[in-house]
Amino acid sequence: MNTNNDTSLAPHLGRLLIDRGWMFSCAESCTGGLLAAAMTETPGSSQWFDRGFITYSNAAKVEQLLVNEDTLDRFGAVSEETAMEMAAGVLTTTQLSSLAISITGIAGPGGATPGKPVGMVCFGFAQRTAQGVTTRAVTHIFGGDRAAIRRATVEFALRKAIELIEL
What secondary structure letter does DSSP report for 103? Predict the structure, then answer.
């Protein structure tokens, strides 16, 4: 099953990573592994894809990605603060990767809360540099049903990763 609308995104990201000698890892919540699946659909992806974490529960985010419990309490799992800690946690957990993306959101049909509608997804991006790990986050709201939101989330993550590398 193709997990994104543009089948050239993951291979293009892979070429960019290879050109820089980088490995990529991800942490996913609401997409449940779809980003990692999109990466590994590409033949030869072991040259640039290291690993993926599926941290659906808050406990998994804390245990596997070192997300601070206070961050979860103050901002919630679906927040830019949590997304940045998830992405940074990936790079802390693995020394092999230079770039990490995290995804946390509300794919629906339920789960919405005031200020956090169905379709709201927070993305964290972490990059290892000579000065340490830099992080940034972005939030986007997608429309459609659960499957459409999850597919659009993966496509958005791939596009943003490409944009970050090409800057």
Answer: E
Residue pair 56/32 in contact (Cβ under 8 Å)? The answer is: yes
Cis omega (within 30 of 0) for bond into 109:
yes
pLDDT in tens, 52-86: 999 999 999 999 999 999 999 999 999 999 999 99
Q: Which residues pair with 116 in a beta bridge?
A: 113
Strands (E), 32-119: 49-54, 99-105
Q: How confident is the model at residue 167 (pLDDT cuts 50, 70, 90)?
A: confident
Domains recognised in the chain with CATH numbers: 9-166 (3.90.950.20)
- How far, in Å, CA of 83 to CA of 102, rounded? 6
